[in-house]
Amino acid sequence: MATIEECRAALDRLSENLASAHAEVRRVAATDRSVSCHLTDLDATFSGRLTDGALEVGDSAPGPPRQRAQIRLAMASDDLVAMVAGELGFPRAWATGRVRLEAGIRDLLRLRSLL
Prior knowledge:
The protein is α+β, with helices and mostly antiparallel strands. It is built from five helices and five strands, in the order ααββββααβα.
């Protein structure tokens, strides 16, 4: 099980990766949406915003998300770290139920290009 600090570092890397991504990827991510990532094994949630092609992640809070974000992810801490490191592909993790993604249909269609 990864620690909260390792998960925070992974989310920071994800944010950096998105910031340095190709212009086309940033264009797809150029939206303004609230985001939450619930780490089921740690029972903690990181909340943030996807804004203008950048991911801004706030601090973690204990328990499930307090507010319903427009884009909601839930996964084990090790899966988050593995996905950001490129060791676990999102499509496979999602298809096998290791990652849950909930969002509106329009957001899902946009995210499809990123994932």
